[in-house]
Specification:
The complex is a heterodimer. Chain A is mostly helical. Chain A is 73% helix and 3% strand. Chain A has two domains: 273 residues, no CATH class; 222 residues, no CATH class. A two-stranded antiparallel ribbon of chain A has the order 1-2. The longest helix of chain A is centred in the middle third of the chain and has 34 residues. Chain B is mainly α. The C terminus of chain B is likely disordered. The chains are: A mainly alpha, B mainly alpha. Chains A and B meet through helix 6, helix 7 and helix 8 of A and helix 17, helix 18 and helix 20 of B.
Amino acid sequence: MYDHAVLTALLVWPLIAAAALWAAPERLAKHLALAASVVEFVVSLPLWWRFVPAAGMQFEVTRPWVSGWGISYHVGVDGISLFMVLLTTFLVPLSVLGSYNYITKRERGFYANLLVLTTGMIGVFVSLDLFLFYVMWEVMLIPMYFIIGIWGGERRLYAAIKFFIYTMFGSLLMLVAILGLYFAAAARTGVHSFDYGFLLANVGPLGNAAWWFFGAFFLAFAIKVPMFPFHTWLPDAHVEAPTAGSVILAGVLLKMGTYGFLRFALPFFPEIALHPTVQLIIVALALIGIIYGGLVAMVQPDLKKLVAYSSVSHLGFVMLGIWALTLQSVQGALLVMINHGLSTGALFFLVGMLYERRHSRLIAAYGGIAKAVPLLATVLTIVSLSSIGLPGTNGFVGEFLVLLGAFRTYPVAAGIATAGVIVAALYLLWALQRIIYQRLDKPENEKLPDLTPRELVVLVPILLGIFWIGVYPKPILARMEPAAQHLIDIVKPAPPAALR
Amino acid sequence: MSIDLSTSRELLLALLPELVLTGWAMVLLVVVAWRHRTAQDLRIAGWITLAALASTAVAVWWLWWNQVHSEGITPMIAVDDFRYVADWLFLGAAALTTMFSFHYLEREQLLAPEYYVLLVFATLGMMLMAGGEDLFVIFLGLELMSVAVYVLAGFDRKSPRAAEAALKYFLLGAFASAFLLYGIALVYGATGTTNLTLIGVQVASLGLGTNVLLLLGLGLLLVGFGFKVAAVPFHMWAPDVYDGAPTPVTGFMATAVKAAAFAALARVLIEAFAATDAWQGIVVGLSVVTMVVGNLVALAQRSLKRMLAYSSVAHAGYLLVAVSVGDAQGTAAVLFYLAAYGLTTVAAFALLSAKGRAGESEVQIDDFAGLSADRPWLAFALAVCMLSLLGFPGTAGFIGKWYILVAATAAGKAWLAAVLVLTSVVSAGYYLPVIMAMYMRPTPFATAHAGVRFARLGQVALAACIAAVLYFGIRPNRLLDLTRTSGAAIRPAAAAPAPPTGN
């Protein structure tokens, strides 16, 4: 019963809750949203125990939807999407709680949008029908557009429309490519279906068209990741979005891009993904992202922008790990995806909390606040260190695995990427130094209140996650391994002996 | 049920919907001749119109339900599913326009019930266009429709802008009709017939695919239809006319008139000219230019009405993509898209006219600032319309666009599909600002949206439109089946039986 209904429940429940919010009184909205998202998390938790690593796709449900076109409602979870779903249901209640004081106008609308967004995000990760995937991919755009555009900062309108148009540009081309795959499979088998497994098995050799289709998928996902040079929407969206928007954007939305590479771009077009030129370009872009993102982050006077650019750098690691295509590197990439969700999510929460106290995001506005807010300073330090990748925290495990795995495929690239870790240490430690340490020389900062219990409830679960993955990542890696191996087997059916 | 159109009784049966509507039009004319002064008279005429449209739709339904079709080569009027579905589109658009006009005409003090008479005659003309199996029937239908719409465009006699619109539309429309007529003459000269199926047979059997006379005629036909659907470069009239005409009439022109022209165009091209692919390249070229120019120019508009006018040009481009496919799937896509686009556009123009208030002041996109706070449901409705026009998943507009992409990709025109989606991205640049204004900007002053009113009947019609747009966006199955079978109803002449000897 649970196995059959859980994914559908996870998709439908936030919609019901969002609709109920419209009828609820304004002052109850945030509490109801919190309750709904906690329920969502609790419902998703048994996935962790009931998941059988070796069993491939599970919790599957298939129902015909638009049968005339072979479109079905087909959802399922494997070792790749499991963690994305759990990460989503984990971050949403925290985002709701973190917005309690930040969102003061049109609360109902805000939380309703957040809940609809939850459906869209989970839908992207569990869809096993390409049409359904596309619909979910677009559906999640609208609530995010509203969250940035209504509750965002000063330049919110610009940031919102830029976010929308960038994403739509990539995804519409992907739509044409999906149709191309659909007709290619139909021409070979006579069966019209958008089912993921069916298409994967029956698309067959595509010839030159594969380059176009891959290009379309690549563009859609690369914009979302975002890879350099498609990243320019990201700093705008992050800086203007409200705290919860930034957390969700960094924690989950960016992962949709890398997830898309893992789920679609690599398995459907292995011969192109392994083409030397394509490899060169993507690995080079990933490296540029790592180094460039870090360097640009270093010079940001705005703390939120600093965190935003650090995302570009972290996601570069993910792309490197995915394209290196060894078991360690793919697992590492998946782990970095989770870690980035936790650490960067926490960083955005902390930036938001500082902003609520001081109404400034400029690093220069702070200094020596460890004296005034010792608790906040401690958490900020821990989270920053985990983002840098200090051993004992989650960041270390993920980036280490990526570098270890990538070294076997691309030794030079792995070497350059290591420099990225150093850059990360530079920009974050320097920022820490200017915010927390040095002299408490600004009188406004002397009376800043420390973390409230509510804020601690938001941050402590993330800290627990940070240390858990840092110390004992084995249960997570064990659940990922078969899926990662399966992906590698699809893409590289007969690996050269030297790589094994 | 199979009928023989050579007997007059069964010919009358085939013409049942047109006859019903004509009968009602006569009734309406008589009523209007006696009662044409007060708002009460206006309402009576409106209700009669609704009754007329509803009973005609039932007549169409009866023919459809009994699967009435004809054997052999059909003279004059087609008896097939394509005609039935197209008729429903016109009748639906006319009925919605009527419902939205009730309040509008009273508000603007246009107390002339002749408005509804013209609406009914225009609808009759459209039905003849979609059902015409002969170029002359199509031409007659087109003229009947056009003349009525010329008058409707200038219906607000007090407004100089409306007068300008009507005159412009009339002069350029007359020009286009002349092109069409000359095209028909040349095609007749080349093939010796004006019956679509027989033209198709002649072109195929005599190998007229490269005949100069025929191609010239075909080109002139395309110019004539291109004008009616407002395809670039024959679109120059559209923004001014759409802008100047009374808003419900604009909605009617952007949906029903366009739908009728597309229905006739699809039938003519597929039934008569399937044997020559000369038109395909032209239609593809027209569609690309129309999509690009329509979308780019719409970006620059500040007035919502002009923006919708240019966006309707862009949508004509998308529809031309489906027409250029030239097979059953393409035709089905045209019908589905017309239904989705029609529902959305009629609703959008109704919302615009409600915002316009008395005197029909020009409504800028910025005038919608803060609408969501004062009138959440209206803002929601307009947001759904914008997303549907943008082709966003969850709305009928998306399924319509998807259908066109499917048809184009299946026919090996993936690059054309790519052009379509790229120009759609551009359209986000002018649809989104409307949503942005409504939801993300503050209301400029307290009474900014005070005068926005919807009469009860208009509310019902609007709610029905929005519900349908969302429903067909999520469960398109029934409408898909309907358009698929009716799209397959018009076939190239090659599939028709052997040509008769004594024609």
